[in-house]
Structures are given as structure tokens and as C-alpha cells.
């Protein structure tokens, strides 16, 4: 089968009508992926993208394709699509989150010009999942994923599924269409280097089940070492002429949720992940493969997660491909949010289940199928159907469904529960025995935090720290419960939502990243739980003016190092390590940091160590708690005043000299993370007004291939120390030159000192630049190299 991309040469209208279908009148030229309406970053209105719109393009087909079978595949058409071929209705699809294929054979003319049109209904009033009631996320619209043309012989391989019931055997199922001339199928398994590790030939039939392909000592698929193999199937006729070749990647791995946790290849593994919406600023869902892959890279390398839940729908194949390659474990689910509709609606959901299984089941990263509508009520008849579909199409994986219900009817293999019980000062999780009706099945925390404590990048330092500590507390509880398979925090990044769910600007500020994927402090909680890249973050900027009465309160350091050395004005305060009983199970828990004095009192006053430490403890209590000092510290201070003969005047002087340094230069704090005796990260906190731009581009070499390419550009305004300047709410302007264009507007306002933009290719090769300017920093310019592949666009 030959696959050709069909992502260029489209025309778009916001109002589909008969004249558009007849290819009359003007329409806007567009490239796919495409959103039907770009939105502003703040105060987006979901009514703006709800319409009955249209896409059309002509299709020149060579004469030599006569006698072939031709197929059009749309990877993502939000949300109800009808395809017309040369003016005739060819097919309809009732889901914006799964792909669908239309056979063009007999409807098109090879050796001539053909017309393809798509009527697309993006309205949220549709009688199909996820619609029917309210939805806590915007659903956007458009042909937002890629479109393909497949050319096949009369006999071809329609479907191929590979699974690994043991670590040294692959079982392959094949479905062959138009079998007439097909006589045999040759199967080969290739390792990452392209070396064959298995070859076998089997007789052709309409359906071939469980073809055994033994492989000796394959490299297993794991999060740390995701071994990938390619299965190649060659369909031949009796003369051994090749009719079709189909390839898919897979991994040798066995995944199982048991009552006492999750096991991968027989070894227990705690899942630590986040929920992901496929939503981006301005263009909603419409981003090319490279940007989809970038999210997986952020999750794996920056946030150091080992798992992700694709809430609340199947997501881009490019994202799943990256999860396969990176070793990121995936829990994916059918589209929906709380609402269950009527019989027609349920039929559509069952079809979504079938499509999800068939389209995604070769991804080794997927270990669990979500076959319930997210947070819906029980409906045993409906969910018996979805479970049966999943078990028929993929007996190798377990099923689950995400609930907020206690003791819900459990037809699946794993009870997935959204546990929002943590409120800041209580336990992290409710017990499994209180929630699940079956202690003999697996148990997974599918969401936590999120709406319980929305946090903006520009919230107060205390709020941002509390947000991080709440994530740490729940993760600690996840790690402390042997009967909990893992947890998915809500959520990876902020996202657009409807007016009745988000903040006043219609953004759900639930992410540990902002919408551009810039990190909030809570991101350091996930990153520090891993042993990859070095992590060092401090819960405060150490500016006393950010706090009532100048009292910073409890402060914490987030790191995956062994300990952190801290200096104040070049005087060592000490080495700070995990301490206390608040977090018992995290490998790298937050480190308390409240001592901003060190040995200064002992040295400055010439007191004994014992006296200096006692008085310092009372002084630091004032810094931590301000006027709300706990009674125990009041009593301690009174006793110490008598014991060490230090009256109010002495305490006042000591506080002015060592704690509250108003009127003198603000202190400079320097932090060094030390692991295995080596400094792995360092940062400095001090008050300064020297601002500059710091920019991170996901890629600077862009390649035009199946579609346009794009780069995510994350922007921080930082101070002289490289720390984000959270009050630098500056206008940021963008200008491009060369073969690049902006995705989104040419200006943004930094929120909490952070923002971003996207650049994409225009179809030409060469060198392009992105110039970023503000009124308070030096400009910054990024250079991009753009390449154009011979991608054989039709």
C-alpha cells in the first residue's frame, strides 16, 4: 500500500453551502492541521468555533492507478464530518477524536481531476460523545490532524495486530480484504537496527489469528529502556508477486494491574503521571506531529513522569509514537465527560470504543483502556457493551473507567478513581477499601488536585508554594499505599474551558505548566521525583515584601539531590536535607528551609551554640508566622527570655540585625544541590531589576514533510540570576522573516513573567528568524533552518 499525505492545497469556508460543494466562489487557502477559528489566549468564547464549515480540494490522480483501490483517511475531524467525492456523499463520521477512512474506489477518476469536500459540524449541540450536557474543556473544530491518501491492490492487508503473551513470543492477527489473488503472508520482526529476528510464511486467508512469531531474548519495553521492534507483513500472490506491505511497531512487554499495584514485565512499578489535554493556545487542537511529540518529551524529560493519561479522548498518533519511543506509559480512554446520552449516543460511544482499540492497540505504551465515559454514572448495560468490545479486540490489555463515585459498579479490571479529598492539611488520599467495591482488583488514582486549588503563574508566592506542596502530599500518599497502582495529577498544562468552569478568562489554571508549557513551581514536584535531569527549585523568591508583615512562612526546596547547601551573603547557612514526618514515601521529598540566619548570631554575639540556637529559633518563628505566632513559640520565647536573660529590647535588636534587614541591601541567597558528592545544580535568589529574555525553542531545525512543521517557543523574562521575574507582566512582540510564519498573534503579555509563541514553516526551504522584543529588555533573535522533504504531496 502506498500512503501519500494530503495536507496542502485545501480551501476553507466558515459556512458550508451548495455553492462551496460545487467548488464555486472564493474560499481561504489553508494547510492541515487546521482550526476552524483561532482564539485569543484570554477570554476565548466557545461560540466562536461552533459552526457548520467546509473544506475542499481538487485531487489529481495518475492514470496508472486505474484498477487500484483508493482510500481517504482523516485522522481528526472535529466533530461530525460528511465527505463528498465529486459532489456525491461518500461517508459520514460521528467522532472528532478517532480517525476514519473513506474508500474512493469507483467514486474518482484516475487520469483526471477529482473534487473532495468535507462538511464539518463543530457545534456542541451534536447528539454524540462528548456532547449532550456541559463539558469542562473547549472542544474546538476543524480538520485538526493530518489527512492521507492510500493506494492499494485489490487484495491488501486491512488490519494487523501484534501482542506479546510471553516475553519471547509475538502473536499476530491479520485481516485481509479482497483476498482473491492473495496466497501467502510473510512475517518478519526487525529490531531497532533493522536486523531480522524472526521470519515466517503463512497461508493467506480472510482472517489469520494468533500467528506465532517466537523471538529469543528480545529487548523488553520498559520506561527506562523502551525496546521497540517492527513487524513487517508482506502479502503475496501465488507467483510471489508482492500485493501489499504493512508495518507496525510494537514492544515485548507484559502489563498487569493487580490488587497490590501495577506490574510491568513482572516487576512492580508505581505510576507517576499527569493528565494531558491536546489543547494549545490560539489553535486549540490543530498542531502538527512535532508539537504533539514535544508534549511527550516535556512529560518524560522535564517533568520526569513515567505515565500519562490522555484525558478525555484518544489523542494524536504522533503523541503516542513519542510515548512508545520514550517509555511513557499511557492510559487512554473513549471521548466523553460525565454525560451519557440515549441509545443513538451510546451506539456512537461503542463505535468510538471499537475505533480506539483498532487504531491504537499496537502502541506498547498503552497499558489500559478506558471504556467508561469520564466521571459518568453507572450504566451496566452500556458498559457491558464497551467492555466486551475491548476484550474482543484486545484480550492482552485490561480495562478501566474513571469515576468520582464510591463503590461504583465495577465491570472493568481496574477501579480508576478521581480522588480530590486532599484540601491542604489532611491526608493525601482516601483508602481503597472505602472507595472500591472489589479489593481483588487493581486500583488507580486517575485525577487529584486540579480544581481543588487552581494556580496561576502570577498568583502570590505563598499560593504557588501551597499548590506545589499539595501535589507533593498526594504523590507521597500514592507512593505510600501498596494497593494503589499509581496516580495521575490534574493536570499537565492549563487549558481552555467554558465560562462555567474556568477562571473569569475561561482558562482552567489546573496545570503544573501554563498553556505554553512553561513550568509553575508544582512542576518541580514531579521533576524532583525522578532521577534524571538535576532539579533545584525554591518555594520563595525570598522577597519579604511579598508576604504580610514580611513573614515568609514555611519555605521548601525541591530537588532530586541528596542535600542542598545554602549561603546568605557568602556565609554558609548550612546543609539542608529532607526532614520531618510530613512526607514519608517520596524518594526526594520537599526539603524544609526556614533558617536564614545560620551561625550568624553565635558568631556576631559571641554566645554559646546552645543559646544562639535557642534564640534563633524564636526569631525565625517571627519570620515564619508573623503576628500569628503559635502559642508554643510564644511560651518557648518567654521561657528563653528568662533562661538566657534576653529581654524585649534584645529580641528587637536581634530581629533587626539578623532577620528583618530593612534599610540595608537585600540579602543574596545562593543554593547548591549536591548529589553523590557533586554539585548538580545551583541558583541564586536576590532582589534586582536587571531583566532579560530567556527563550527555549522545541526545535530550531524544521522539516516540511507530510505537513507543515512548527516549533514551540517558550519565553521567560528573568532577572540577573536567571530566576523568572513573576511581576514582569510585559508586552512581548514577535516578528518573523524568511520561510516562517507565526501561529497566533504577533504580541502576547507575559503572565507571571512567562509566555510563548509558535512558528511554522510556509512550504519553502531556507533560513528564518524570530525576533522577540519587549520595552524593558534587550531583543532576542532565534534562527531556524527549514528543510523541505520530497514528501510526494498529491
Automatic annotation (TrEMBL):
Glycosyl hydrolases family 2 sugar binding domain segment(s): 39-149
SUPFAM superfamilies found in the cross-reference section: (Trans)glycosidases, beta-Galactosidase/glucuronidase domain, Galactose-binding domain-like
GO annotation, biological process: carbohydrate metabolic process
Keywords on record: Glycosidase, Hydrolase
Hydrolase as UniProt keyword: yes
Molecular-function GO terms, alphabetical: hydrolase activity, hydrolyzing O-glycosyl compounds
InterPro entries, alphabetized: Beta-gal/glucu_dom_sf (IPR036156), Galactose-bd-like_sf (IPR008979), GH (IPR017853), GH2_Domain-Containing (IPR051913), Glyco_hydro2_dom5 (IPR040605), Glyco_hydro_2 (IPR006101), Glyco_hydro_2_cat (IPR006103), Glyco_hydro_2_CS (IPR023230)
Glycoside hydrolase family 2 immunoglobulin-like beta-sandwich domain: residues covered: 156-253
Record domain Glycoside hydrolase family: where: 693-777
UniProt domain Glycoside hydrolase family 2 catalytic: residue ranges: 260-400
Keyword Hydrolase: yes
Gene3D superfamilies named in the record: Galactose-binding domain-like, Glycosidases, Immunoglobulins
Family: Belongs to the glycosyl hydrolase 2 family.
Protein name, UniProt field: Glycoside hydrolase family 2 protein
Amino acid at each position: 500500500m502506498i500512503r501519500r499525505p494530503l495536507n496542502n492545497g485545501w480551501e476553507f469556508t466558515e459556512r458550508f453551502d451548495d455553492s462551496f460543494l460545487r467548488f464555486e466562489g472564493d474560499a481561504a487557502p489553508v494547510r492541515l492541521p487546521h482550526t476552524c477559528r483561532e482564539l485569543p489566549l484570554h477570554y476565548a468564547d466557545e461560540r466562536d468555533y461552533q459552526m457548520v464549515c467546509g473544506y475542499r480540494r481538487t485531487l489529481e490522480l495518475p492514470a496508472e492507478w486505474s484498477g487500484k483501490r483508493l482510500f481517504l483517511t482523516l485522522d481528526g475531524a472535529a466533530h461530525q464530518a460528511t465527505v463528498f467525492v465529486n459532489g456525491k456523499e461518500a461517508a459520514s463520521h460521528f467522532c472528532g477524536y478517532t480517525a476514519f477512512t473513506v474508500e474512493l474506489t469507483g467514486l474518482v477518476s484516475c487520469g483526471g481531476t477529482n473534487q473532495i469536500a468535507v462538511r464539518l459540524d463543530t457545534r456542541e449541540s451534536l447528539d454524540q460523545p462528548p456532547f449532550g450536557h456541559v463539558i469542562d474543556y473547549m472542544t474546538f473544530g476543524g480538520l485538526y490532524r493530518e489527512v492521507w491518501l492510500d493506494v492499494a491492490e485489490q487484495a491488501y492487508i486491512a488490519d494487523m495486530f501484534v501482542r506479546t503473551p510471553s516475553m519471547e513470543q509475538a502473536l499476530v492477527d491479520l485481516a485481509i480484504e479482497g483476498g482473491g489473488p492473495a496466497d501467502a503472508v510473510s512475517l518478519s520482526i526487525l529490531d531497532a537496527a533493522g536486523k531480522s529476528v524472526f521470519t515466517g510464511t503463512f497461508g493467506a486467508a480472510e482472517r489469520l489469528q494468533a500467528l506465532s512469531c517466537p523471538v529469543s531474548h528480545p529487548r523488553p519495553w520498559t520506561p527506562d529502556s523502551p525496546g521497540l521492534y517492527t513487524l513487517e507483513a508482506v502479502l503475496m500472490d501465488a507467483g510471489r508477486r508482492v500485493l501489499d506491505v504493512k508495518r507496525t511497531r510494537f514492544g515485548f512487554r507484559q502489563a498487569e494491574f493487580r490488587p497490590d499495584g501495577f506490574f510491568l514485565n513482572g516487576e512492580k512499578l508505581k505510576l507517576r503521571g499527569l493528565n494531558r489535554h491536546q489543547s494549545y493556545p490560539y489553535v486549540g487542537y490543530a498542531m502538527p506531529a512535532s508539537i504533539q511529540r514535544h508534549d511527550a518529551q516535556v512529560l518524560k524529560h522535564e517533568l520526569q513522569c513515567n505515565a500519562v493519561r490522555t484525558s478525555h479522548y484518544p489523542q494524536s498518533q504522533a503523541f503516542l509514537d513519542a510515548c512508545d519511543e520514550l517509555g511513557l506509559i499511557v492510559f487512554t480512554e473513549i471521548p466523553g465527560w460525565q454525560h451519557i446520552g440515549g441509545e443513538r449516543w451510546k451506539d456512537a460511544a461503542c463505535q468510538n470504543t471499537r475505533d480506539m482499540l483498532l487504531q491504537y492497540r499496537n502502541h506498547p505504551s498503552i497499558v489500559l483502556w478506558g471504556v467508561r465515559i469520564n466521571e459518568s454514572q453507572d450504566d451496566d448495560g452500556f458498559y457491558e457493551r464497551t467492555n466486551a468490545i475491548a476484550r474482543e479486540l484486545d484480550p492482552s490489555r485490561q480495562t478501566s473507567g474513571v469515576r468520582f463515585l464510591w463503590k461504583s459498579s465495577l465491570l472493568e479490571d481496574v477501579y480508576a478513581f478521581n480522588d480530590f479529598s486532599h484540601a491542604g492539611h489532611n491526608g493525601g488520599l482516601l483508602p481503597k477499601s472505602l472507595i472500591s467495591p472489589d479489593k481483588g482488583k487493581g486500583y488507580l488514582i486517575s485525577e487529584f488536585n486540579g480544581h481543588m486549588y487552581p494556580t496561576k503563574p502570577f498568583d502570590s508566592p505563598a499560593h504557588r508554594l501551597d499548590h506545589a506542596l499539595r501535589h507533593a502530599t498526594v504523590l507521597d500518599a500514592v507512593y505510600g499505599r501498596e494497593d494503589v497502582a499509581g496516580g495521575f495529577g490534574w493536570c499537565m498544562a492549563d487549558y481552555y474551558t467554558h465560562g462555567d468552569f474556568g477562571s473569569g478568562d475561561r482558562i482552567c489554571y489546573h496545570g503544573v505548566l501554563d498553556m505554553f508549557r512553561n513550568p509553575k513551581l508544582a512542576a518541580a514536584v514531579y521533576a524532583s521525583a525522578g532521577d534524571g535531569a538535576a532539579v533545584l527549585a525554591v518555594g520563595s523568591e525570598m522577597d519579604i515584601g511579598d508576604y504580610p508583615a514580611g513573614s515568609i512562612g514555611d519555605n521548601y526546596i525541591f530537588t532530586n539531590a541528596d542535600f542542598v547547601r545554602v549561603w546568605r551573603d557568602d556565609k554558609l547557612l548550612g546543609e539542608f536535607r529532607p526532614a520531618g514526618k510530613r512526607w514519608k514515601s517520596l524518594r526526594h521529598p520537599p526539603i524544609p528551609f526556614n533558617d536564614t540566619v545560620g551561625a550568624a548570631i553565635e558568631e556576631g554575639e559571641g554566645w554559646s551554640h546552645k543559646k544562639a540556637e535557642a534564640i534563633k529559633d524564636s526569631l525565625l518563628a517571627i519570620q515564619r508566622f508573623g503576628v500569628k505566632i503559635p502559642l508554643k513559640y510564644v511560651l518557648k520565647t518567654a521561657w528563653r527570655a528568662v533562661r538566657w536573660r534576653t529581654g524585649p529590647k534584645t529580641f528587637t535588636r536581634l530581629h533587626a540585625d539578623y532577620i528583618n534587614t530593612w534599610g540595608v541591601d537585600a540579602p543574596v541567597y545562593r543554593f547548591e544541590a549536591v548529589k553523590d558528592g557533586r554539585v548538580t545544580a545551583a541558583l541564586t535568589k536576590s532582589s534586582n531589576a536587571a531583566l532579560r529574555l530567556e527563550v527555549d525553542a522545541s526545535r530550531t531545525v524544521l522539516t516540511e514533510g507530510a505537513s507543515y512543521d512548527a516549533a514551540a517557543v517558550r519565553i521567560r523574562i528573568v532577572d540577573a540570576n536567571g530566576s523568572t521575574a513573576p511581576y514582569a507582566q510585559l508586552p512581548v512582540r514577535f516578528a518573523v522573516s524568511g520561510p516562517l510564519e507565526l501561529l497566533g498573534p504577533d504580541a502576547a503579555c507575559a503572565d507571571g513573567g512567562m509566555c510563548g509563541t509558535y512558528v511554522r514553516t510556509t512550504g519553502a526551504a531556507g533560513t528564518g528568524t524570530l525576533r522577540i522584543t519587549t520595552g524593558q529588555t534587550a531583543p532576542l533573535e532565534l534562527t531556524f533552518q527549514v528543510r523541505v522533504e520530497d514528501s510526494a504531496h498529491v
